[in-house]
């Protein structure tokens, strides 16, 4: 059975126990990737449960270094989460809700530690929002049963997507594997169920006695990053300025984008030198912003209530937020993509090159292809890369260097501040043509044409590749082929590590051989 089915079965088997177990002592909300108080389904339900029983709500966050390692979480992302926890702790304290943050080294020890804590606090009920990765669903299915056996209740809720995974089925009753018809159904479903966009209420204030009864929980410090995930002081300061943490920062960014840029999103979203996209991905990934709030806000700026009508920029932006839903739906339906397998099994036999010199040049932004190098350096510097450039560098890795897409997927997760398994896997699967609804394998980006089209004046390249800042005109896209070789060479900029036309042919042949032998 798929992991979601395991969770559903555990929920069904414990439903009666859940209905009959009285609330005692306290109710706990377990924060995961939903680090906000506003528009948070499980947090609100936990608060309601606590209020109805007249007991306090306690918030919990577990930091597991092993878990961070297993998920390849980037140090920049860990830093963002820890800073967010500081903000969250203050916000919750204003409601007299304590946030207890604990480090649990091994991830398999998380369930038993949570039960111990619940025992210490005398809590009967645990609430959390679902995470859709395989290990998380399995863990939560097991926990639901385990807590049930101990007379406790675990309530897991859908929250992270606008439309919960599993709801949308095609005419034949199956899950969609193509985005466009899925999106049409998504739009229809939301229109027919507008409550999906409604703002979920914030938690209520705890009884005053919580301050004295659980004083030690309020005093809980936010830990520093585990050793394997810590940043240098200089990086920490840079990321702090680039990605201010907390839900209020997400709302500020969302309002500014909705007021000033969303209307022109359609025209500007593909130009990496232009701040034409929302830069909200870090907030979606950490849950400092809910997808509901994002779509509701975008919709409120349109002159029609239709999600696929009115201003083109708003429509397109909503459809991008829907991509995030799409990839999570795919993950729930086809969980084997979590296991390093291509969505399309016929693409399992491609003979990839494992040329580490090429891989290192790609990682370090030294490929000799200026647009690729600019993008890879943006990633290293900001922990973020523009979507157009993510597609260009991913295509370059798989189709110019013939490197295994999983190497790129992993590297992205290790460096992205917005690293999200489903979206990252989806993006890599698309670019490498091995994923759900992918780019056909014979469609290979020409990095030079991409560069000329999306960075016509070379502004983006000059920003991120200082060696080329004095190169004039169109030579910026291909200095060695367009008369700026001497300047590039003097500045230490490398020559192209592959020749695109030959690389393209090699890749087409390798894909064809792989598919034919599959
Ligand atoms: P906007 O253009 O403002 O879009 C708004 C939001 O919609 C984004 O914040 C994001 O949550 C969602 N979104 C937009 N495009 C996509 C998409 N193609 N797939 C899924 N969701 C999307 N996005 C991540 O959040 N985490 C990742 O780890 C990630 N890895 C990627 C890897 C590759 C190879 C590719 C091609 C794309 C990847 N994306 C990923 C999708 C996309 O590049 C980023 O979401 C986007 O660049 C974030 O910038 P923004 O917030 O300004 O986006």
UniProtKB/TrEMBL annotation:
Gene3D superfamilies: 1.25.40.80, DNA Cyclobutane Dipyrimidine Photolyase, subunit A, domain 3, HUPs. Binds 1 FAD per subunit. Residues 25-162 form the Photolyase/cryptochrome alpha/beta domain. Keywords: Chromophore, FAD, Flavoprotein. GO terms for molecular function: deoxyribodipyrimidine photo-lyase activity; DNA binding; FAD binding. FAD binds at residues 265, 277-281, 317, 320-327, 418-420. This is DNA photolyase, FAD-binding/Cryptochrome. Belongs to the DNA photolyase class-1 family. It comes from Apiosordaria backusii. GO terms for cellular component: cytoplasm; nucleus. Its cofactor is (6R)-5,10-methylene-5,6,7,8-tetrahydrofolate; FAD. Pfam families: DNA_photolyase, FAD_binding_7. One of its GO terms (biological process) is circadian regulation of gene expression. PROSITE patterns: DNA_PHOTOLYASES_1_1, DNA_PHOTOLYASES_1_2, PHR_CRY_ALPHA_BETA. InterPro entries: Crypto/Photolyase_FAD-like_sf, Crypto/Photolyase_N_sf, Cryptochr/Photolyase_FAD-bd, Cryptochrome/DNA_photolyase_1, DNA_photolyase_1_CS_C, DNA_photolyase_N, Rossmann-like_a/b/a_fold. The record marks 352, 405, 428 as: Electron transfer via tryptophanyl radical.
